[in-house]
Specification:
The chain is an alpha/beta fold. Helices cover about 35% and strands about 25% of the residues. The chain has a domain of about 180 residues: 3-Layer(aba) Sandwich (Carbamate kinase).
């Protein structure tokens, strides 16, 4: 975030609270959000609230747009989708006023959230935040619409993509030098696995920024990866909590109580695999294959190139399923240009990842994971690693068995220390 946007005012402690769609899904929940924000102010904190759209209203707007037109209208879609957060922010402000507390609701552009030009997946490049500070100086609770900003280059409204309200909240917390950014959601915190897949998953008391980044990238949907990156870059502690009770959640921060070998198992069933067959094994052809994908704005995750046989090889890679049609079209065009044999796509895949900061100092973790998957009859199609993560692509139908098997195999649901898992 550019230096000129940093807050230099000395003021009492600021708490940024972000509430997701389920937390503001109806009138009663909006009233509960208002009550929590007011209670936080009454203990001596300045409060900024960031809200998502109510319930599934964003999905409903997307469906409505598809019924109106078959064509893509990126600018107008952003204008449409930002309406959901504006509704939430106004209603929360009204509910706060009913407590006798001053409030001020601001759109992303009014709050000075500056972004890149890309519609639908813009990135925050700075936050001015002058009107937010003005509201706080007047003793008001400031409510900011998440998920949105504006491009100073085009002067258009932009949206930040799925989970963008998390990025809004943590970026605001960094700009305002907040004490903490609280992310209120419909789960109690960050778990060792998705509790809907592994009923015995355990809530973590804390997790490092590095681990949370890997878990988010591997499919753990509780936090957007960009929000964690903001937290790490500006050292803003993030507290993931339930909006339905006052109990503690999971702290995401620089240092944790102990460096567990394994933190958890994440999975992602939202990707698809593209395989380009018969690629000539010549220098530069891989670049020719992936450059057009990058230019089309398609994010490639895992890549595997087979051993060359008779001068040709197969290259497989995974992309978000939402980008599959475009990825297939681009790959087929490139395959024809470079003399490859053809392109296949596979919708039925999922990624299972093991994450833990202690893995970099522990031998045998990968071998144990592969053995567990084999014992559960799960075939591994692709593998990628980082110092604190091991990811395997498996059949989509096998993802539940894979996650439960790995979770149980590393005893992540038990109260015993993760160090015993090795």
């Amino acid at each position: 975030m550019p230096r000129e946007y940093a807050c230099t005012l000395a003021r009492m402690s600021i708490v940024v609270q972000k509430y997701g769609g389920t937390s503001v899904a109806d009138a009663d929940r909006i009233k509960a959000v208002a009550a929590r924000a007011v209670a936080t102010q009454k203990v001596g904190k300045d409060v900024v609230v960031v809200v998502s759209a109510m319930g599934k209203s964003t999905d409903e707007l997307i469906t409505l747009a598809s019924e109106v037109t078959d064509n893509s209208h990126p600018r107008e879609m952003d204008m449409l989708l930002t309406a959901g957060e504006r509704i939430s922010m106004a209603l929360v402000a009204m509910a706060i006023e009913d407590h006798g507390v001053g409030s001020m609701s601001l759109t992303g552009s009014q709050a000075g959230i500056l972004t890149t030009v890309e519609h639908g997946h813009a990135e925050i490049i700075g936050i001015r935040g002058d009107r937010v500070r003005e509201g706080l100086n007047e003793g008001k609770i400031v409510i900011v619409a998440g998920f949105q900003g504006f491009s100073p280059e085009t002067r258009d409204v932009t949206t930040l993509g799925r989970g963008g309200s998390d990025a809004t909240a943590v970026a605001l917390a960094a700009t305002l030098d907040a004490e903490v950014c609280e992310i209120y959601t419909d789960v109690d915190g960050v778990f060792t696995a998705d509790p809907r897949v592994v009923p015995g998953a355990r809530k973590l008391e804390d997790v490092s920024f590095e681990e949370m980044l890997e878990m988010a990238a591997a499919g753990a949907g509780v936090l957007m990866a960009r929000s964690v990156e903001f937290g790490r870059r500006y050292n803003i502690p993030i507290h993931v909590r339930s909006s339905f009770h006052g109990g503690p959640g999971t702290w995401v921060k620089e240092e944790t109580m102990e460096e567990a070998i394994i933190r958890g198992v994440a999975h992602d069933a939202s990707e698809a695999k593209v395989t380009v067959h018969g690629v000539p094994d010549q220098p530069g052809l891989a670049a020719q294959l992936f450059d057009p994908l990058a230019q089309a704005g398609i994010s490639v995750d895992m890549i595997v190139q087979n051993v060359s046989l008779q001068g040709v090889t197969d290259i497989s890679f995974t992309v978000p399923r939402s980008d599959l049609d475009m990825a297939q079209k681009v790959s087929e065009s490139t395959a024809a240009e470079i003399g490859a044999a053809g392109v296949d796509v596979d919708h039925n895949i999922a990624k299972v990842s093991l994450v833990g900061a202690g893995m970099k100092d522990e031998l045998g973790i990968a071998a144990k994971m592969f053995r567990i998957l084999a014992e559960h009859g799960v075939n591994i199609e692709m593998i990628s690693t980082s110092p604190i993560r091991i990811s395997c692509v498996v059949r989509g139908d096998d993802v539940g068995a894979a996650v439960r098997g790995v979770h149980d195999g590393f005893s992540l649901g038990d109260d015993q220390e993760s160090a015993e898992n090795g």
